[in-house]
């Protein structure tokens, strides 16, 4: 073979190799672009509502606890969280510094840098552009990249809630403690955290703290939660963030026990003696699920909680376009029964007939006024922190001989035992587990400002002459135990001396 032939053959091989490389690059770029477009499209467009029937099946049915032969609901509310060990309490104390009124205060950024794991290189965290977009959307309500539930701004922080600011002046330190357990909810973060941030700004950053436990997310949830720390620090917000690998759905574990651990972890900054001095004498807990909320939902909950001198105040969560009350498994009225009748064939035939066996509650429900219940959660609660701080109660599963139910139900039983069973539901604070669902719920069941006049100034609760006060009663003598929807019976309520004052 001549030199020219050899050269021509080599040139052909080079051109062929170049062509192959070019094709590979084109295919790789197209694939990457499509992947990026798919991800960003999902992040920036309203997503279709999931099938409510599928949601109900996945959340309500399946194995209860570790007994495979019990078919029934799981704790209503989408708590698929997983986390690992809580921060080391002694390390928190070492990093403490003096803050408001000489109380120990932990610098948020320094604390997180020392005690919160960095995002792992596992492909779950977002690209920088997407991450920054989420962070901006949380702190900037004008950010329209991410579609979310619309919350009319002019109604969110009305003069009605000025009294909540005034109370902070009388009780220095962190007065309002926001606690969340979150897992794979990136689509709802701009609305959920955006509303919480707006409430914090209104109440005063120095009066608020935010505690979040996250785990097992693979959609970028943790990256966003980690990424907001700098902006929170700029606003002066005390922020705790931790991860855990607890999986309530893992084989061989009791789901309620694992969920209780996660809830207690979120409360740890408040209940730990090392960090307790940072808080006011009477802080309020705002425990929020992965729900789409407006700022006035949180403010009204807190307002009514303090006005009514309640121990626990609940919202109402909805699915199926606002047609079906979601937390049916753990909620009991003052008749001791479920909020609506659930026959043992496990149908929802009577789901619209709320409070059918308690006329007083039914009337107040229809009039959209607060009323007492035995147990509830409803996607979001405000809690009296005193019994948690004092160690009288914590979230837990049932013990032997006790009715098996969700942790809100055991909480209700424990509140009765310590004479603090002042639990109420607000039938005009409505939440849902997606922006799309929440939009439909608010449209059907109204916003808070459609029900109460938020424009009337209230500087002290005595100024509120319109709100009907709850007439607290002793807890019902018995309540319906329901390990599964097809397993129902009545059990006696356990009282202790001292609860008679509620009569």
From TrEMBL:
Record keywords, A-Z: Membrane, Transmembrane, Transmembrane helix
Region annotation Disordered: where it falls in the sequence: 67-99
Superkingdom of source: Eukaryota
Chain ranges passing through the membrane: 12-31
Protein name: Uncharacterized protein
Organism: Lithohypha guttulata
């Amino acid at each position: 073979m001549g030199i020219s032939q050899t050269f021509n053959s080599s040139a052909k091989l080079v051109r062929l190799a170049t062509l192959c490389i070019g094709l590979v690059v084109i295919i790789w770029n197209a694939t990457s672009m499509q992947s990026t477009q798919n991800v960003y499209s999902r992040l920036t467009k309203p997503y279709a509502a999931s099938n409510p029937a599928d949601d109900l099946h996945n959340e309500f049915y399946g194995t209860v606890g570790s007994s495979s032969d019990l078919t029934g609901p799981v704790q209503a509310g989408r708590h698929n969280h997983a986390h690992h060990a809580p921060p080391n309490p002694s390390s928190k104390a070492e990093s403490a510094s003096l803050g408001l009124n000489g109380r120990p205060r932990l610098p948020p950024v320094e604390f997180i840098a020392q005690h919160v794991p960095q995002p792992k290189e596992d492909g779950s965290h977002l690209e920088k552009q997407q991450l920054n977009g989420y962070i901006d959307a949380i702190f900037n309500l004008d950010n329209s990249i991410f579609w979310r539930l619309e919350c009319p701004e002019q109604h969110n922080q009305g003069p009605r809630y000025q009294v909540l600011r005034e109370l902070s002046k009388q009780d220095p330190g962190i007065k309002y403690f926001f606690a969340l357990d979150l897992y794979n909810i990136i689509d709802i973060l701009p609305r959920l955290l955006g509303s919480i941030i707006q409430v914090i700004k209104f109440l005063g950053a120095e009066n608020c703290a935010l505690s979040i436990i996250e785990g097992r997310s693979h959609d970028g949830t943790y990256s966003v939660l980690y990424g907001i720390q700098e902006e929170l620090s700029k606003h002066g917000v005390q922020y705790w963030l931790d991860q855990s690998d607890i999986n309530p759905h893992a084989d061989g574990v009791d789901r309620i026990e694992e969920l209780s651990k996660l809830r207690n972890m979120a409360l740890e900054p408040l209940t730990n003696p090392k960090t307790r001095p940072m808080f006011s004498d009477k802080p309020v807990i705002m425990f929020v699920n992965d729900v789409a909320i407006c700022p006035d939902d949180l403010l009204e909950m807190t307002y009514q909680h303090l006005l009514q001198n309640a121990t626990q105040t609940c919202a109402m969560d909805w699915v199926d376009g606002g047609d079906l009350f979601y937390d049916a498994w753990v909620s009991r009225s003052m008749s001791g029964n479920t909020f609506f009748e659930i026959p043992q064939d496990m149908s929802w035939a009577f789901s619209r007939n709320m409070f059918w066996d308690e006329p007083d509650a039914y009337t107040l429900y229809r009039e959209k006024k607060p009323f007492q219940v035995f147990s509830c959660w409803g996607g979001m609660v405000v809690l009296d922190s005193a019994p948690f701080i004092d160690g009288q109660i914590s979230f837990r599963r049932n013990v032997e001989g006790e009715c098996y139910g969700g942790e809100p139900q055991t909480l209700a039983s424990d509140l009765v035992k310590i004479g603090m069973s002042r639990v109420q539901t607000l039938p005009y604070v409505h939440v849902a587990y997606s922006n799309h669902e929440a939009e439909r719920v608010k449209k059907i069941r109204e916003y808070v400002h459609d029900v109460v006049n938020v424009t009337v100034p209230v500087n002290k609760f005595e100024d509120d002459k319109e709100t009907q006060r709850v007439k607290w009663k002793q807890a019902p003598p018995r309540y319906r135990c329901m390990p599964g929807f097809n397993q129902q019976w009545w059990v006696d309520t356990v009282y202790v001396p001292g609860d008679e004052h509620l009569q």
